[in-house]
Structure formats: C-alpha cells, structure tokens
Write a structure and sequence with these properties.
Two copies of one chain form a homodimer.
Chain A: H1 12-29, H2 43-57, E1 61-68, H3 73-76, E2 121-129, E3 137-143, H4 173-184, E4 192-198, H5 205-214, E5 223-231, E6 240-245, E7 247-256, E8 266-267, H6 268-271, H7 278-287, H8 320-327, H9 338-347, E9 350-357, E10 368-369, E11 372-381, H10 387-406, E12 411-420, E13 423-424, H11 430-443, E14 448-452, H12 457-465, E15 469-475, H13 481-493
Parallel strand pairs in A: 3-4, 3-5, 5-15, 6-14
Antiparallel strand pairs in A: 1-2, 2-4, 6-13, 7-11, 7-12, 8-10, 9-11
C-alpha cells in the first residue's frame, strides 16, 4: 500500500485518502445508495429519485428523464430529452460543487409521489458536478440494480455490507463517498464529473442509447473519459484495469405441444407413449447447442470471431488454483491450461444453458408431461460478433434442427430477450495508463490490462455515443476500492486536456 | 341407461339405484372423505382417523396400523400387525352392518390427538363390514391422497365437486356412499366388504406389502376379489373394465459440478467458457434416454417386454379424435394409428422427462451457471419388467454414457426414488365378467376389457398377497359411477362362492 508515496505527497489525494481511511467504518454502515432506503415497491422512478436527491445534496445538477420502451427509435428524436419528471427546478449549470454546503441527509423521498415502473417507459438519471472548462470531464455510468442482493444464485456482487444493503449499488455508492471525501477536506474535484444512472430492472436500453445520442451535443458534449466499475472477478489477476467486455445474447426457446396455450399438462400414466413430448424436443434442441468442450455448434456463429486474436502478453493468465477453489470444482475445462483458460474467459464466445422453465419445480415427484416448456440460454459474444447476426444464426439453426432432425410436430419459438454488444477499447489509450497508475498508487504492483468475460449494456453504448475512451475498474472494496476511484479522478485530471 | 332392466327388476339394486338417484345432489355437496374435513396439518394419521370414524359410523370394524418405513422387512415379522393407534375398542367381528344404526355425522375428529406423519412410520387403515360365511368377501383398496386437488398440473382426478373437496378421495368416497345407500334402503350388502385405505403421501409401500403378507391369514384370509377404482381416461373407450396397469420407475439423475455441496451457482459472465457445466452434462444424459419416436434407448430395458404381446381384439382402440382434442395437440405419435396408440398406451413401456431441478425457475432472466442440477424422469413398465432390473439398467447406462461418451469430470448420481410393479390379470377370470355385467347394467353397451397406462402401487401388491383376482373400474362419476359400484357388488355376490 502507498508504495508510490511520491504520487500522493503534497497532493490533494493525501488528504482525501486520510478522510477515506478515517471514515471507512462510517461508509460501511450506510445502507443504501438512495438514502433513506427505497422499498422495492417504489420502482425504478422512486429509486432514481432517491439517487437524485443524494446527488443534489452533493451539489449536482440533475435531470430525471423518461425513456420510452420498445421500437420507438424513429419517433424518439422528437421526444424532448430530459423531460423532467421531478418538479424540482434544474440547478443552473456551472455551480462549483465545493462551494455548496452539503445538505444533511433526511427522509425526503417519502414526500415524493411514487412512480411505478410502467410497461411503456423507464427512467434515466443524468447529473453533473462542475463545468470548469479548464478540466476534463469524466462520465461515470452506474446501474442501480433494483433486485435485492439476497439472491442466493447471484454471487458476483461485492457486498459492501450484505445484511443492510437493499440494492446492488456497488457501481454508484463508492463514487458518492469519494465525492463526499473531496468535499469534506475542502478540495475541488480534479475533473468535472458526470453521472449517468440507470436502474437495471426494466430499463429500456435501446431508448437509453437513443436518448443519449440525441443529447450528444448537450449532456455528452464535453465528456472525454468514461468509467464503469465492475466487481473483482476471483481467479483473474488483480490489480487490473479492464479494456474490453464480452457481449450477450439471451435466448429463450419454447416448445409447445398443445395448440391451446391455456391447456394444462398431461399425465404420463394416462398419456405416456402417445405424445410428441415437448420436453424431449427441448432437450434435443438444447443438447445441439454446444459440445462437451464448450464449442458452440451453431454454423456461422464463430465466423465473425476475430481469427488469430489472442490475449496480448500483458494480459495475465488467471490463477488456476484460485479459480478452481473459488468455484469448488474438481477440474476446469481446457486441460486447465492457464493461457487457454484466459482465452476462453474473455477472447472467445461461450454458451450456457441456464434453466428449463415450464415443468413443475417444487419438491416431490410428479409424473406430469409438461406440454409447454421453455429453455433459457445465453451466449457471450466477442468483438466482431453482433447480437443481430448471432440471433439470426441461432434462430435459423434451432428451427432447422427441430424441423429436419427432430421432426416433431410441436411448435417452437426462439426469442432473443436481451442483448448487449461486446466492447473493446484501444489498450494504448492514455486513459488506460492513467487508470493503471491510479491502481498502482493505491495497491502497488503493476496493474495489468485485461479483458473481462462479463457484459455491460452500457459499455458499447458509451463507446458509440461519446468521442472519448472508456475504462472499467474492477473494484475490491476491501482493498482500497474507494481510494482507487479517488486516485483515478486525480490521474485523469492530469491528462492532456487538449483533445479536440 | 337401465337398458338391461331385467337385471334390476325385483332385486335390491333397484331400491339402491333409486336412493342414489334421489341423493346424488346430497352426495355431491359432501365435502370430504374424512368428515369433518381434516386440515392438511393433521397428516396421514389424522386423515386416516377421520376415515376410520366415518367407516365406524357405517358399522365397520377397523384397525389403524403403524407401518415402519424403509428396509425393515426382516424385523417387521415381529411387529404385531394391527398395532392399534386409536384408543377405541375394536368392534367385535360378526356384527351385521344393517342392524347397526347409522351414527349421525359430527365433529369427532377434532377431539382425537393429532398424529403427524413421521419419517419412521406411516399408517394403514384396515376395515371390515360383515363376516357372513355364505357370502364372498370383496376387498376395496383406496388411496386417500393428502395433496390438495388444486394442483394445476395434475388433472387426472375426477372432481366430484372441485371447489369444496379437500382431498383426492375419488377412490373411497363413492364406496362409502354406496354402502350408505344399501343401509338406507335396509338391504344387506350382497358381499362381505373389506377396506384397505392408504394415504399416498409418505406411505411406506414396502412396509404395507409386508404388513399385508403377515396378516394374510387374518385380514386377507377370506378375500376372494379385490377392486380398485381409477379415473376415467379420456380417449379410452368407455365403458370399460381394466385388467392390467403399467408399473413405474421414477428416477432422478443429479450432476454436481462443485465439490462443496453448499456452493452457490457461478456467473456465466465471469466463468462462462472455463467450466464443465453440469447443465450441459444433464441435457446430454437426458437426451440419450429416448428417441423422437418414444423408443427407450437404454440397452436391455426392452429385453423383458413380452415379445409379440399385443392387445387382444377385445381391447378397443382409443378414439383418436377425442384423444387429440383432450390433449389439444395437433398430432399424436405413431402416425395416429389407433391400434399402435393402444399398444403404446398400455402394452409398451414409455419414458417421460418431467423436470429439470436446481436451476433458477422464477420469472426474468438470470445468467447463472447452475453447479448442481437434477433431472426427473420416469419409466412406465409393462409385465415381465421389474423395477429392480430396470433401475439397474438405467443406472449402468447413465453412468456409462457420462463416463465414456460425455467424458465430464462432474459427478453424477442416479437414484430410483419411487417404483411400482406392473399388474396384469387373467382376462378370463369370472370376476372380470361380473364387473363387465355391472357396467352394462348401469351404462348399457358392451363394456370392453382393456389395460391402462397408469400405475398403482397396490395393484401388484394385492395380486401377490391375495389368492383372488383384481379388477380396476374406471369411474366417471357424472355417468352413474356410484351405481356401477353398487351393481358390481351385486354381480360379485352372484359369483360361485365355492373357490377353495
């Protein structure tokens, strides 16, 4: 820690670090990004209003936007961006944050009208802290997850304090604490900071992209650097800075035996043997997707995977022992060769079948023949693969397999329910160097650059709608994560602002 | 209806039928076999005590037995059969039922101690009505299902009155009403009647069989004919009498990726591509069980299926149109050839995959890699197949496929969680003729003899533990089902009693 003391000596960072060290316990006892905690029932609007209040107390200008759902891209251009839902006046731009008193936290959310998540729109919160033309502007994207973190089957979220936190706010809360720290020690932020806050559950992502595109000249006009935070992935060498993420296609394939959708399941004693059972068809289809070594069997899907692309030598191979022990599996794939594991973790697509829905799933043993079953699977995409093309390939393939190989009269329906484009950044961008220096300042060592296996809807969107570069910082809040963010802002503030 | 009036003219049946006709509405308004209704919490013991009270009010001698669970067969011979749980004295044998006043129904159950279903024993209710040595003795087996009938996915139960009934009592309630009818018109039952009542949920079937074997000389000593009732199966020609049922092997196969059983699922973004995913293994295994035409692919499983056995001409082929419309499917298997459908409905084994357990099953889309998944499937067996041999074949096959073809390092575990032996009766037994005549008396036409596709644990057990023959009567309560039972008792009473 602090091995590169020269970098903090005499700088504002030292004071900020001191504050963060002193207040870490206080930080950990805070409950929720939208203080006071928003009950789940408040929905997306309510949660983002809570976040908005919190940001206003830090002195930010805010806009809570309404983003229409669905295929409304052409009509969206006439929807005024930043249709302000809250009745609060927009704080005039240009206010210097440090001169604003920090408003004491209080239960203001409950007095706001409750806006539930509708089927026709979602919300998007834009906020800005500072407009100093002598500083670069950094955009932070946070996705405030509306799902409670007590999901047993999702353990990819770092628990700042698992028992008290209501929402998955690891992507936003640390930033708020860092801003508070700069304000507390009465130091100006070294950059202009912008926040783009979404609420994952029920967000109309296409609408968000379109909304940002139309506001490119306004909200995004001065954004030079963007940053997202990720949970630290066990097994991956740390400290590190991420310059790419895989994309995602989430599919469902439904097999329907009964013509009447309301028809209940049959009984295997009475009808076992005379039906084309939908479950059999579904198992056949799902089993045709990927081989035992993880190779996707759908023709054409791998055509666009960049041939010969391999992790550069700077990308450290994973720690096989840690990976195996984190997953508690006896053996990893690809002969446990760390180089090949790195390749399959982020440089190649992967496919996972997540669930079979529609059959009974309670305790006990029921002898039903489900007449309507749905398989869930997703594909992680790598650069040069597009969700559209991958979706087309899978749809064609599954229909062909069903019709020509399975030859079942049951109906199938393939649906792409969610997608994210892959994102990869030029690893030579100076922005990544600044992020690496920030990590080294706090954690020491030589932070590596690497790509991640996960997906972020916004990463590729930000790459398209901004002119600048994006980094993803994997945070381990137990390992000085807040200080990494402070140091990152400091380092980016040192970069050449002459970029036009 | 009543086309064969000659058979009822001047007989006791005419009066019984008249009573049933007059009281049908009353019958339908009754709630539950164990009046007053037993809340689910009473468990098996409580429900069977309710049934016992009801039978006592009809004048029956009863014994509520305790049957140990599990592999205790050798020690069972020393457990005294009929260990009486209830403190009520056993009514002395030989009482003539019609001379007993019918005790008015009342809430007696609530005053009895609550006995919950334990892990170590289950209950079995034995009852007898009459011991006239000049009459044959008929044993009725009823399985009182403890599960509420509002299970959406089980629609094989005839709803006498779906909104009010608590338990699946179609196998017992009609018999009680018929006995009441004989008593109401002051006619003796034409036979001695015995009841063997089990409560499906949590019943120790092996223990029941052993218990019956040891009591063969006592409770079963005079039993000549046995009868079970089944729901009427749509598509099957009706009226009919069933002389055989398929057996059952219910399997689970679990694939475990993580060594630590408490380990939660992985995230496909972080780890997708480097794991031997258990779901992929499970899909592969389940897909190897049966082909698209329903043929079981496990070597040796079909070896014991009686070669060349085909439905005799008396077994009517199903109504293809009714079958297709009941199931609301566009096309049935086996080219919709009614003869082949009949073969596959009851003369050949079938296999159904019921569910995949262990993956998330709620709404939405989660990108987890489940590390522990379990497939549920069952096989319907036909005569000459035994659950033991079938279990061995499946276990060997799945382990071999996993080890030699899938070559996955994940652990698998195949378990036979439930089984029932197939049952088939000599179709020339005069007992079946009596049952056919009873059906014809009420419903007219020429009732066919056929075999059913379902399974009954007790059918094969009764065949082994009694010296007599068994029939299964498919009941349609909307079509004179109660009268069919009354006519059946009458017809069986006419059979030659000289059978020793």
């Amino acid at each position: 820690m602090y091995e590169d003391k020269a970098r903090t000596e005499g700088s504002t960072l030292k004071e900020v670090f001191g504050y963060l060290d002193a207040h870490l316990k206080l930080v950990n006892s805070r409950e929720d990004v939208s203080s006071p905690p928003s009950p789940r029932g408040f929905g997306q609007g309510g949660v983002l209003r809570g976040v908005e209040e919190r940001l206003k107390r830090l002195g930010a200008c805010t806009e809570l936007c309404v983003v229409p759902f669905g295929q409304v891209l052409s009509s969206l251009s006439v929807v005024p961006v930043g249709q302000v839902l809250s009745s609060l006046p927009v704080v005039p731009a240009g206010q210097v944050l440090s001169s604003l008193p920090v408003v004491p936290a209080g239960p203001v959310l409950s007095s706001l009208p409750v806006v539930s998540v509708g089927q026709t729109y979602s919300h998007l919160l834009l906020a800005g802290l500072g407009e100093d033309p002598g500083k670069v502007t950094v955009l932070v994207h946070s996705d405030v997850d509306l799902q409670p973190t007590n999901r047993k089957d999702v353990h990819s979220h770092v628990d700042l304090q698992s028992t008290k936190r209501k929402y998955d706010d690891v992507s936003l809360l640390p930033w708020l604490h860092v801003v508070e720290a700069f304000q507390a020690v009465k130091q100006p932020l070294p950059i202009n900071l912008k926040f783009l806050v979404t609420a994952a559950e029920g967000t109309a992502w296409e609408g968000v992209e379109q909304c940002l595109l139309t506001s490119k000249k306004r909200f995004l006009s001065d954004v030079r650097y963007s940053c997202i935070t990720l949970d630290r992935s066990p097994g991956t060498r740390f400290p590190s800075v991420i310059y790419g993420l895989r994309g995602l296609c989430y599919f469902t394939v439904e097999v329907t035996g009964a013509d009447d959708p309301s028809h209940s399941d049959a009984h295997s004693g009475v009808y076992g043997g005379v039906l084309y059972e939908p479950m059999g068809d579904l198992l056949f289809l799902l089993n045709c997707l990927v081989d035992e070594r993880g190779k996707i069997l759908v023709p054409g899907v791998l055509d666009d995977v960049v041939r010969g692309e391999e992790p550069p030598s700077r990308d450290a191979e994973p720690d096989v022992e840690e990976l195996r022990s984190t997953l508690a599996v006896s053996r990893l794939a690809h002969k446990e060769d760390s180089r090949r594991l790195l390749l399959h973790l982020a440089w190649l697509p992967s496919l996972t079948v997540h669930a079979v829905e529609g059959a009974w799933s309670g305790p006990g043993a029921r002898t039903t023949v489900p007449l309507r079953v749905k398989g869930h699977f997703s594909v992680r995409l790598v650069p040069d693969q597009t969700p559209d093309k991958v979706c087309l390939r899978f749809t064609e393939y599954l229909n062909k397999v069903h019709r020509h190989f399975r030859r079942s009269p049951n109906a199938i329906r393939v649906e792409l329910t969610s997608s994210a484009r892959p994102w990869v950044q030029d690893p030579d961008d100076p922005h990544l160097g600044a992020a690496q220096r920030a990590v080294r300042t706090v954690l020491g060592g030589s932070p590596i650059l690497t790509r991640g296996g996960g997906s972020s809807k916004m990463a590729a969107v930000l790459q398209r709608v901004t002119v600048g570069s994006l980094v993803a910082l994997p945070l381990d809040l137990n390992m000085g994560g807040l200080k990494v963010l402070a140091a990152y802002l400091h380092e980016v503030g040192q970069l050449d602002t002459n970029w036009h």
